[in-house]
Hints:
Elements: E1 25-26, E2 29-30, H1 42-56, H2 66-72, H3 75-95, H4 98-118, H5 123-133, H6 138-152
Antiparallel strand pairs: 1-2
Amino acid sequence: MAKPPKSKPQARPKKRHKPNKRATxxxxxEVARPLPPLALGPAAAVLDRLWTVVMSRRxxxxxxxxxxxxLSRGPAKVAQKFGEEAVECLIEAVxxxxxxxxxxxxxxxxxxxxxxxxxxxxxxEVWEELKRREGISGIAEKAARARNLPVAFNLDTTKIP
Length: 161
């Protein structure tokens, strides 16, 4: 009886190498750095549209609209709810639940926008503050706040109260 011909072992598919996001050159060619999401425009536009929807719910029936119900409770309750959502996001992050962090992040952003509406803050004000901080080292920016905050409150300390 003849032996069946040996089959060649199939080559394993090559593992995809994750590119180093910090790399600017690879094998002599330029590699574009990915832009932050808000720099692309559409991401910020989603938040702007959400803010518009929440603004329109200020006068809606709280029995029908979740945003109206939150807003009817006042800024302090809205801030409390935002804090609760932020803590839920942190818990999921610590637990390493990536999908849950994405979902909870959406909740955090929604409740932050409700807080902006309750506090009469327009998204453009936040975008302008982010633009102002762009290119400033986080360490330098925080150090400037640490110097200015005690002066503002007439405190004799270099620590943030």
